[in-house]
Amino acid sequence: MGAASLGKEKIMLSRKKRKLTFAAVATLAMACSPAYATTTTITIGVAANFSTTLNAIINSFSSYYSGTYTYKFVTVVDSTTNLKNAIISGAGAGPYDLFLSADFAAPQQLYTSYSSLVVGSPFQYATGSLVLWSGATNHVDISGGLPSPLTTNFVLADPTKAPYGKAASQVLSSAPWSIPTSTTYPSGYAQTRPNINTTYAAVKDGTFPYGFVAKSAVCTKPSTTEVWYDSTHTSHHEYLYNDAAHPYDQIKQYGVKVVKSRTADQETELTNFLNFLTGVGTTLGTAKIQYYCYQLP
């Protein structure tokens, strides 16, 4: 073979190597790009009062990580007690990766009595407040608080299932209504709905003229001032937990990580979300909590 032929073969081999190298780099770049990133999904069981806030946090979280990961979520919205019972029934198989309760008692019961079903101890993520609210439909001015004597039906969440309902029953146990907390609801004028979201809906659509709802359902705080939903056509009265006349157990909302089979990518998503929710590394998540008129721990 002549020198000219050898030279041509070397040039051709060199070009092939360059093409292979470029192809390998392109493949690697595509694999690492967001379009080819692994999509992972985790499931969150959330107390009804926090569902709107959670959706806002999830949207912010997904945007925050959009250039690195593709994260998705399944949310199950229910009363705290129903969510807790589902975890117990799951017996180590979930059904959630994370349980966001509306109280301390439910996650703590799982931690102390069903420790094999949770990972780590409960953590607080928010503090809520109780509001008596009347919507634009079938409106009654209740800005001065719950009437006495009671003359019309009103609604609260089931106290046996929903912490906000329990708080409302504690308010009702004080004077001048003096309805014992041992009362089985519905009772008299006090009617119930299964959770705080359905309670709010029953007031908003006019089924009841007023009822006890979560403050987060009717209040936002875009800056330093609270803004109440449609304040021109609605009315509200906030009951503070430490009001000497009508006290109730402060609504401290806790979460706990649930035992469930997870891939390494799902575990990473869950860890990242927990950090986002509790303000580790960024305050974008906690800002959403405050926006819906919750207090931070």
UniProtKB/TrEMBL annotation:
Q: Which UniProt keywords apply?
A: Metal-binding, Signal
| Gene Ontology terms: biological process | molybdate ion transport
Molecular function GO labels: metal ion binding; molybdate ion binding
UniProt xrefs under Gene3D superfamilies:
Periplasmic binding protein-like II
Q: Which InterPro entries match?
A: ModA, ModA/WtpA
| Superkingdom to which the source organism belongs | Bacteria
Q: Which residues form the signal peptide?
A: 1-37
Q: Which Pfam families match?
A: SBP_bac_11 (PF13531)
Q: What NCBIfam families has UniProt attached to this entry?
A: modA
Family label: Belongs to the bacterial solute-binding protein ModA family.
Which named protein is this?
Molybdate ABC transporter substrate-binding protein
Please tell me the species this chain comes from: Methylocella silvestris
Q: Which gene is annotated as encoding this protein in its UniProt record? A: modA
